[in-house]
Amino acid sequence: HYMGLNEIREKFLEFFESKGHLRLPSFSLIPQGDKSLLLINSGMAPLKPYFTGEQEPPRRRVTTCQKCIRTGDIENVGKTARHGTFFEMLGNFSFGDYFKEEAITWSWEFLTKVMEIPEDRLYPSIYENDDEAFEIWNKKIGVPADRIFRFGKEDNFWEHGSGPCGPCSEIYFDRGEKYGCGKPGCTVGCDCDRYMEVWNNVFSQFNNDGHGNYTDLIQKNIDTGMGLERLAVVMQDVDSLFDVDTVKNITDHVSKISGKTYGESYKTDVSLRVITDHIRSTVMMICDGVIPSNEGRGYVLRRLLRRAARHGKLLGINEPFLYKVCDTVIHESGGAYPALIEKQEYIRKVIQVEEERFDATVDAGLSILHDMIEKAKNAGSKELPAADAFKLHDTYGFPIDLTIEILEEQGMSTDRDGFDALIQEQKERSREDRKRMGDVGWASEDLGLDKSLKTEFCGYTQLEAEGNVL
Ligand code: ATP
Ligand code: MG
Ligand code: MG
Ligand code: MG
């Protein structure tokens, strides 16, 4: 039966509290003391020291709903029903306390008893040789053997870089034939949207030293992760995570501003979904202290904001608007994350400033890029010279990914290595400049945002210069 996203979150945390877990608030998206990760991408990431035994957890059993960013999924966003760059991950964790049997039993209990999902629409998967997990699913829970899927390392051995890892058991939900790709052999594990992975139970018992050498952890742990939005798709029986109550309200706001109706055309829908997703991730990142810049996390933020702004253009929105949509994100998630409300004015401002900056140069940049594309095409080339991509980046503030995305729409590419080399040269030049300028140089480096301001001013001069040439 129908359940709102905020209610589902609460039900999950309450359920695991009733199983002796300590509820902790979501950790920041910015990893603390973990240089291997740019942004938190799972519930277990901020808990690593408890898994390895380096630190003593506040309790052996913990449950959280963790904000996550996965930029690796950016290509999927708007195209699949189930991927966002931002999502919330529900999780229950055991640090050397309970293991496989309890984890599997409770995940089944939660889905079938608390959420009341029909058993015959759920399918577990296990790591190929994990007979222990098979026995639990088959004998204890009673899932018939032909409904349990065995997968290899790619899918059912969970590891992200170095650190705690292990075999896992996932639970898939069959959304029905209408979501299937229709290809022969479409079943659990198919990439389409019919069999949707909802929950991953990781039996975290090994440590990877980062070079593929596995040793037993001093304790056996449980690390589970379930996408809150995906569970909401199931509970609300909707098409995609963009139709989930809280997320839908954001899409509706974008629809209203753009005057475009959701569901009318594939192309428009993709843009509406991309904007909806990116505004969620960027609001959350800014709230956690990330600001737009040309490096690291700040660059991820900038890239997401500018990509959203450009999809706004595709919808015909020709002025800053993301800072307005920000209010709906905060309205929907402010209850679960009160910091959003406290920082609302600040978050809005950061987005507005970035939008205005990009807005000042984006039209000129787009028309120049189209000229560049024409020129390359006329010369019979499908590759934009690196110098052109660099100019767009340096003068018009186009993140390289944005340029590549626009090029791909035209069946073109660019010389990525050449581009990276130009960026490197530029870095070295500014390092030299700073050396010459002494302290003054460092001061402007610290302000971070100054760099893009300077870029903009170049933009105007450049613009005039271009105008004169034409
Ligand atoms: P998928 O195969 O569907 O991409 P995954 O195997 O990469 O998912 P995990 O790393 O196992 O995902 O993460 C645990 C859970 O988090 C998943 O079972 C899913 O419910 C959810 N999840 C993962 N990636 C996303 C995403 N990009 N957007 C929304 N939810 C996600
Ligand atoms: Mg994935
Ligand atoms: Mg998967
Ligand atoms: Mg998975």
TrEMBL record:
The alphabetized UniProt keywords are: Aminoacyl-tRNA synthetase, ATP-binding, Coiled coil, Cytoplasm, Ligase, Metal-binding, Nucleotide-binding, Protein biosynthesis, RNA-binding, tRNA-binding, Zinc
Q: Where in the cell is it found?
A: Cytoplasm
| Annotated ranges, domain Alanyl-transfer RNA synthetases family profile | 3-470
Give me the comment on cofactor binding.
Binds 1 zinc ion per subunit.
Please list the reactions this protein catalyses.
tRNA(Ala) + L-alanine + ATP = L-alanyl-tRNA(Ala) + AMP + diphosphate
> Looking at the record's lineage, which domain of life comes first?
Bacteria
Tell me its cofactors.
Zn(2+)
Instruction: Specify where it is mainly localized.
Output: cytoplasm
* Listed GO MF terms: alanine-tRNA ligase activity
Tell what the record comments on domains.
Consists of three domains; the N-terminal catalytic domain, the editing domain and the C-terminal C-Ala domain. The editing domain removes incorrectly charged amino acids, while the C-Ala domain, along with tRNA(Ala), serves as a bridge to cooperatively bring together the editing and aminoacylation centers thus stimulating deacylation of misacylated tRNAs.
In the record, the note on similarity to other proteins reads: Belongs to the class-II aminoacyl-tRNA synthetase family.
The free-text function statement in the UniProt record for this protein reads: Catalyzes the attachment of alanine to tRNA(Ala) in a two-step reaction: alanine is first activated by ATP to form Ala-AMP and then transferred to the acceptor end of tRNA(Ala). Also edits incorrectly charged Ser-tRNA(Ala) and Gly-tRNA(Ala) via its editing domain.
Protein's name according to its UniProt entry: Alanine--tRNA ligase
Read off the lineage from the record.
Bacteria, Bacillati, Bacillota, Clostridia, Eubacteriales
Relative to the complete UniProt sequence, the shown stretch is 2 to 471 of 879
